[in-house]
């Protein structure tokens, strides 16, 4: 399945959703979080320090992408990710070269391979919509303790918020970035956060950090040399500002939820973009959003195309799911904001009532 970027004139339009005829309340409801198939990657915390170490001496090439509303976000170039994966695989035994890696270095990175690779390498359109949506929101609404991005991939929304927090001195925050694939978190999500942080430094400091091991290293605007010093400085900034970054890989499930909730933070914001495309996992991602909204009173932001042709998920299905859970007594409300009516994309705000 592939989708392309393509923005037409954005017209924002809001309606409170009354979904198709509401399903009848089910007495024997089994929470989809509790019945995730066994052939998926289990939820796992990825150690931040180890992930940073694995990037040492890497030269990251990135693109600065400016959203329709003029927000600059940074994302590592796909060819650069593939290059790193190939180099790492060259140094591994055959047994260590995972199916996941084989797909990551394949020619068509837009493929989704069910339960193996779920599309996190590229930035999907709704993540850009989400950045522009977040840009219109107040700091007080956004920066409430823990920010969770589910199915983050390149994590443009989180990197936008991270950038904003760093520049406006919003400290004491916990970011949880979750993606099905550990490789995506390590090779794309984390580098994008580092590049975002680097963009907030004074130019002289940035040059010094990049040249700390080799004075002759060329300094190029869209490349970043990840020296030990630069990585250490990134980590120290997080500590100084009491900003925690946690990376969680693996499938959404009850144990995934417990892992997210296992730190000292309380989720204030949960974001997810282009994750309701699969009819099988739509109920699971919906339940996660419902959990955070109903238990932690978080604000939920779900960005999606209205229809996922060829795969089956849709906005209406998501609305129907939320309506069903409302009827079953979950204390949630939702409002659908239409984004760019021509391309039929939406941002759904889910709140506690
Ligand atoms: C289509 S990509 C969207 C990536 C990113 N949010 C964006 O909009 O650019 C879907 C994302 O959801 C994640 N995902 C899909 N199914 C998942 C599952 N069952 N458990 C955990 N993550 C999942 C994938 O790893 C992937 O990053």
Please provide a written account of the structure.
This is protein-histidine N-methyltransferase. Keywords: Cytoplasm, Methyltransferase, Nucleus, S-adenosyl-L-methionine, Transferase. Its EC number is 2.1.1.85. Its main location: cytoplasm. It is found in: Cytoplasm; Nucleus. This protein is α/β, with parallel strands linked by helices. It has a single domain (13-352), classed as Rossmann fold (3-Layer(aba) Sandwich). 35% of the residues lie in helices and 20% in strands. It has helices at 48-53, 78-90, 99-104, 125-135, 139-142, 156-167, 182-198, 203-210, 228-240, 254-260, 282-295, 315-327, and strands at 13-15, 44-46, 59-66, 72-76, 146-150, 173-179, 223-225, 243-249, 267-273, 299-305, 332-339, 345-352. The strands form two sheets. Strands 1-11-12-10-9-5-6-8-2 form a nine-stranded mixed β-sheet, sandwiched between helices. A three-stranded antiparallel β-sheet has the order 4-3-7. A hairpin with a 5-residue loop joins strand 3 and strand 4 (72-76). The longest helix has 17 residues, at 182-198. It is globular. Residues 1-23 have low confidence and may be disordered. Bound molecules: S-adenosylmethionine (SAM). S-adenosylmethionine is lined by residues 118-120, 123-124, 126-127, 151-154, 179-181, 251-252, 273-275, 281.
